């Protein structure tokens, strides 16, 4: 009876415990090769795990005791159901050509984010601007290379061109991760916020492109990409703005932000499991 009353008196804690259990069990099932069937281009197990992770994040952000709490939970459940029925936009490419086009479709957002980043130095405290410039000095070149490789892959979606795209996106991802760690050392809170906003915008697009490239890469290639990623997602996760990422994804695909949050969480989970 005590257990039942605890569940009743602490619904959020109980829900969080259940979601953690889902993620844990799904991880064990995945390691054993148990899929429970397909869902979109992935499996039921991986999708359930990603949804549970997303729900945990949203649950943690839920304000206590607000009148809209019940409505928010119901809306969240609805989007979770939709996510179960639909493949994730930047996780479910059916062919190299489809994914290549999606990657190219992201490149204007990447170029815009890099252009905004280039103008950020003027907003910083004088002592912080040189640190920021040094941390992001290679972004323009990396962006141009990634855009060129994406277009090359769209024109010629072969294994050799894909290999070049894999190198380009991982290299850029590592530059983004390194710059986030550099931003963390800046003590001026205003400067740091400007820097994190700018880098997160670039990082969101790079992460989306990385997920797309992963979706058309073999296991050996993904493992090689992960091995080249020496600065892991776990190290820079405290500096990520998942809300901003969800807004960018929602805007790009013309979908609700709540659904985009689930997709962003799924991408992060898959990246960490792949070793990034």
Would you kindly provide a written description of the structure presented here, covering whatever features stand out?
Strands 1-2 form a two-stranded antiparallel sheet. The chain folds into two domains: 2-85; 96-274. Helix 5 (96-118) runs antiparallel to helix 9. Residues 60-87 have low confidence and may be disordered. It contains 13 helices and two strands. The chain has helices spanning 2-9, 11-31, 44-61, 69-85, 96-118, 129-135, 139-155, 159-183, 189-215, 219-228, 233-236, 242-253, 257-274, and strands spanning 38-39, 42-43. Helix content is 75%, strand content 1%. It has 276 residues and is an all-alpha fold.
How does the overall form come out from the CA principal axes?
Answer: globular
**Count of separate structural domains:** 2
Provide the residue-averaged pLDDT. Answer: 79
Low-confidence stretches: 60-87
Major sheet description: 2 strands, antiparallel
N-C termini distance: 44 Å
Structural class: mainly alpha
Radius of gyration: 20 Å
What spatial order of strands do you see in the largest sheet? 1-2
The overall strand count is: 2
The percent of residues in helical segments reads over 70%
| Percentage beta strand | under 5%
Helices, by number, come to: 13
Strand and helix order: HHEEHHHHHHHHHHH
């Amino acid at each position: 009876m005590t257990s039942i009353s605890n569940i009743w008196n602490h619904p959020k804690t109980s829900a969080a415990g259940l979601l953690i259990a889902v993620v844990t069990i799904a991880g064990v099932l995945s390691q054993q090769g148990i899929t429970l069937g397909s869902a979109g281009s992935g499996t039921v197990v991986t999708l359930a795990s990603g949804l549970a992770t997303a729900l945990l994040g949203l649950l943690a952000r839920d304000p206590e005791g607000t009148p809209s709490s019940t409505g928010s939970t119901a809306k969240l459940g609805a989007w979770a159901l939709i996510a179960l029925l639909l493949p994730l936009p930047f996780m479910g490419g059916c062919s190299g050509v489809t994914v290549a086009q999606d990657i190219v479709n992201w490149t204007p957002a990447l170029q815009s984010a890099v252009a905004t980043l280039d103008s950020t130095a003027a907003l910083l405290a004088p002592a912080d601007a040189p640190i920021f410039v040094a941390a992001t000095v290679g972004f323009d070149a990396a962006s141009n290379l990634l855009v060129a490789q994406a277009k090359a892959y769209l024109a010629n979606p072969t294994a050799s061109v894909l290999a070049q795209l894999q190198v380009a996106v991982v290299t850029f991802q590592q530059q983004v991760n390194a710059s986030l760690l550099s931003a963390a050392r800046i003590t001026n809170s205003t400067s740091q916020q400007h820097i994190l906003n700018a880098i997160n915008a670039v990082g969101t697009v790079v992460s989306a492109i990385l997920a797309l490239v992963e979706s058309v890469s073999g296991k050996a290639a993904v493992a090689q990409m992960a091995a080249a990623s020496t600065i892991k997602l776990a190290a820079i996760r405290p500096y990520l703005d998942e809300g901003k990422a969800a807004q960018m994804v929602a805007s790009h695909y013309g979908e609700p932000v709540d659904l985009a949050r689930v997709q962003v969480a799924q991408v992060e989970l898959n990246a960490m499991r792949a070793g990034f």
